Fold this sequence. Notes:
Blueprint: H1 3-9, H2 12-17, E1 19-21, E2 25-28, E3 34-36, E4 41-43, E5 46-48, H3 50-62, H4 65-70, H5 74-77, H6 81-91, H7 96-103, H8 108-138, H9 163-173, H10 189-200, H11 211-218, H12 225-234, E6 238-240, E7 247-249
Antiparallel strand pairs: 1-2, 2-3, 4-5, 6-7
Helix pairs in contact: 7-8, 9-10
Amino acid sequence: xxxxxxxxxxxxxxxxxxxxxxxxxxxxxxxxxxxxxxxxxxxxxxxxxxxxxxxxxxxxxxxxxxxxxxxxxxxxxxxxxxxxxxxxxxxxxxxxxxxxxxxxxxxxxxxxxxxxxxxxxxxxxxxxxxxxxxxxxxxxxxxxxxxxxxxxxxxxxxxxxxxxxxxxxxxxxxxxxxxxxxxxxxxxxxxxxxxxxxxxxxxxxxxxxxxxxxxxxxxxxxxxxxxxxxxxxxxxxxxxxxxxxxxxxxx
Length: 251
């Protein structure tokens, strides 16, 4: 199971922690890093048991679960950029007066209004989650959708793809199997995302690739490998340095 699927299937309790307790290891829900149980991990003169070390990883790699979640695409959080900024300042313990001065807006009363609006959003979210849980219990045969990758640059109806629909599209476009030659690169946006997602899985998430190495993986799949490479970056599957010297899977 890839990290996006693991994230979206996780409980709110696990998402708040930022990691999932699995049989033999702890898995970071934010990037997929795995920490094996039963091992002591030395780091900068300190010895960590596995669960403490995954917690240390989250702090060092992601600052905090809150900061990671707050940095997701606004289609994922349902927050405007302004709300995300204010929420971060609340989390960091800033007073209403300090926030007013930093944002140079309104008055302390304006900040209190934002607090109220966010509380209202919390109540709405709890109600909605309860309704969705009841819906799932009522309709056990509901077909699952393909998880949206958390680094998606745009989130809209293009991600409205079920698991069975994805499988049919992959069989159609990769008649000889994923990683083999692509029959054609689709024009429909939602079909492009399915193909790009499949190609992304061919890369090692822990590795950085040179442009030449990246091209060597893509070229046997599709002749216009530059087009595929550009779309992988444009749709938020792959990231790179500004000078193009290194590429990696976004998490």
